[in-house]
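STRUCTURE:
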């Protein structure tokens, strides 16, 4: 059985704490999340044809991303639109495995009530996902940045949604959310000194 690895503050991978310590650690993180604005991002990988295509195009190992809320729920854009998973098991479903979780205490805080009110229920951005492909490939092959002409303002794919929330909260520098893949977001988070 493989243990999940998380990145420590110095960038090295470390295993999840043993189950007898996980509740204590999780409780501490939960309090920090509620009191100090801890932002948590969960990256997953999946099997199947669509996941294989995502990995092949992006050159990354992750295929989906969601944002952890202070009450343990996870908000993410998936087929069917922006939705809230009540538990990690609901977020993972039957096909996904947790690949990495990063967290940071940042200011300004993400307004969870605004996310739930303004974003949940918005449609999935299928056109934007297709429109991101030329930009991803142009960057991988020629290191040329091009925008996403098919991205829609009120529709999101998974990494576009998380990037939009981070950008609008001032956590992420101005980037075009419609061109960032889960793998690109994971690279950005893993290289930032503010995320562990």
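SEQUENCE:
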């Amino acid at each position: 059985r493989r243990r999940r690895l998380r990145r420590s503050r110095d960038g090295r991978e470390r295993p999840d704490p043993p189950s007898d310590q996980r509740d204590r650690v999780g409780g501490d993180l939960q309090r920090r999340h509620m009191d100090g604005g801890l932002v948590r991002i969960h990256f997953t990988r999946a099997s199947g044809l669509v996941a294989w295509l995502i990995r092949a195009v992006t050159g990354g190992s992750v295929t989906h991303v969601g944002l952890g809320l202070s009450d343990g729920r996870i908000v993410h854009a998936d087929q069917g639109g922006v939705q809230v998973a009540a538990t990690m098991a609901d977020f993972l479903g039957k096909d996904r495995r947790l690949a990495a979780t990063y967290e940071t205490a940042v200011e300004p805080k993400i307004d969870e009530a605004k996310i739930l009110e303004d974003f949940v229920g918005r449609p999935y951005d299928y056109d934007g996902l297709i429109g991101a492909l030329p930009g991803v490939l142009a960057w991988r092959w020629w290191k040329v940045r091009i925008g996403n002409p098919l991205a829609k303002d009120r529709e999101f794919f998974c990494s576009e949604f998380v990037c939009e929330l981070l950008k609008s909260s001032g956590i992420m520098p101005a980037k075009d959310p419609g061109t960032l893949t889960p793998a690109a977001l994971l690279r950005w988070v893993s290289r930032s000194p503010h995320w562990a």
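REMARK: Residues 14-36 have pLDDT under 50 and may be disordered.
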